[in-house]
Specification:
Number of strands: 2
CATH architecture of the largest domain: Orthogonal Bundle
Membrane topology: Multi-pass membrane protein
Oligomer: single chain
Strand order of the largest sheet: 1-2
CATH topology of the largest domain: Clc chloride channel
Helix content: 55-70%
CATH class of the largest domain: Mainly Alpha
Structural class: mainly alpha
Organism: Jeongeupia chitinilytica
Pfam family, one: Voltage_CLC
Number of domains: 2
Order of helices and strands: HHHHHHHEHHHHHHHHHEH
Main location: membrane
Shape: globular
Protein name: Voltage-gated chloride channel
């Protein structure tokens, strides 16, 4: 065969056509599902606001949803973590019933007043629908991995209206400190097409306005860096508290539907008697306020607490929008202390707490630029990177793998949820070694 300097480029044409078609198919399914989901959320939120007494049905709603998962959805209960595990270690096709279960469960959570988000639902629907295309076409394990990543990107992009962030999120969320580019084309196409499908279906995303971004200078950069430490710690507290509460509840309440029944009773009582309606649901109005006027310093803590209680007790929904709320209101509270404009710090906090909790600093920086404008890019990058570092080896997705540890060494390939046990073993080993050394020294004397 005659050698051609363009042979590789020619061979790329069928590859390009293949993944444009496959990713577009995934995007149409995910974008349509996300549009339906967003309209359902709007209805649920409006209905709950109009009928505040619905919050007293939250325990019953939680019981019903968890009973349905116990009866029909044990295989899909792990949610986002199931998708991440299937990408790293493919075993079997994600059941299609993940879609109606997580969609219905999340809408009920919002209708009756749990403090949960929405990205988890969109990502799970995108991944599950992508896996159905994999099954229909009989794709191999390598292609299936890329399809699942494309489904994650499509779901994330379509629910937030951020295609660039969605494309990178599907690559970045899988492993801390490591990106795989074999799915870059598919994730990019899926994210862009899914976002456009949602817009064509009539979806309109919330607009967050930052009037002015201060010019790049020493103090604003340092101030955002200091705030990034707080954002990272907030993300760590959120992730750790949610996992610990969830673990405690599972150890002490054996029958799964009783967990949200009890948690829902606590949430409903707090909302009704403390007037905490502001801190349930998505909380979009409060997030918008954080860009416009000074808010109470405790808004972020109240939202964090109610979200931990809701998710930790088993209610279905995502973590990201509550993280946006926590970040925006925490940034708003820190702005006077750091002598920075509160719209700027609210915007950086919006994405930085998410970056720390999800270990996705690149996707979070791109999200800031898509939502608030390219001018915030430098500040957002500093806030997200610092938050990512200071959140440590914690995160909302326990199935994330370690690609490259942060400050302390953690074995590559270890799941994030295994890190605490690994560190406890290291500490125990160090204690044993010190005891042996002391015993040896005593014997020598």
């Amino acid at each position: 065969m005659k050698y051609s300097p363009y042979s590789e480029q020619i061979e790329l044409l069928p590859y390009l056509a293949k993944w444009v078609l496959l990713a577009s198919a995934v995007a149409v399914l995910a974008g349509t599902a996300s549009a339906f989901f967003l309209f359902a959320l709007d209805w649920a939120t409006a209905t709950r606001i109009a009928h505040r007494e619905l919050v007293w049905l939250l325990p019953v709603a939680g019981f019903v949803v968890d009973w349905l998962y116990l009866r029909f959805g044990r295989e899909v209960e792990a949610g986002n973590n199931l998708l991440i595990d299937e990408i790293h270690d493919p075993r079997k096709i994600v059941p299609l019933r993940m879609v109606p279960l997580v969609l219905g469960g999340t809408v009920m959570s919002h209708l009756f007043g749990a403090s949960v988000g929405r990205e988890g639902t969109a990502v799970q629907m995108g991944g599950a629908l992508a896996d159905q295309v994999t099954r229909w076409l009989g794709l191999d394990r390598t292609d299936r991995r890329i399809m699942l990543m494309a489904g994650i990107s499509a779901g994330f992009a379509s629910v937030f209206g951020t295609p660039l962030a969605g494309a990178v999120f599907g690559l970045e969320v899988l492993a801390i400190g490591k990106l795989r580019y074999d799915a870059l084309l598919a994730c990019t196409v899926a994210a862009i097409v899914a976002d456009q499908v949602g817009l064509c279906r009539g979806v309109r995303h919330t607009h967050y306005a930052i009037a002015t971004i201060p010019p790049i200078s020493l103090w604003p950069l340092l101030g955002v860096g200091l705030a990034g430490i707080a954002f990272g710690l907030a993300g760590k507290v959120f992730a750790d508290a949610t996992h610990r509460l969830g673990g405690w509840v599972k150890r002490h309440i054996a029958y799964a539907p009783y967990r949200p029944l009890l948690g829902g009773l606590f949430v409903a009582s707090i909302v009704w008697f403390a007037g905490a309606d502001r801190y349930i649901g998505l909380g979009i109005p409060a997030i918008v306020e954080a860009f416009r006027l000074p808010l109470s310093w405790h808004d972020f803590a109240a939202k964090l607490g109610l979200t931990v209680l809701s998710l930790g007790s088993g209610f279905k929904g995502g973590e990201v929008t509550p993280l946006f709320y926590v970040g925006a209101t925490l940034g708003n509270a820190l702005a006077p202390l750091l002598h920075l404009p509160f719209p700027l710090l609210a915007g950086v906090g919006f994405v930085a707490v998410f970056a720390g909790a999800a270990n996705t600093p690149i996707a979070s920086t791109l999200m800031a630029m898509e939502l608030f404008g390219a001018e915030i890019g430098v500040y957002a990058a500093i806030g997200c990177v610092v938050a990512y570092l200071f959140s440590g080896h914690a995160g909302i997705y326990r199935a994330q793998r370690i690609g490259a540890g942060k400050l302390r060494h953690v074995p590559e390939g270890m799941a994030l949820g295994e890190v605490p046990d690994y560190r406890r073993r290291l500490k125990a080993r160090a204690v044993v070694q010190r005891l042996r050394l002391k015993t040896k020294e005593s014997g020598d004397k």
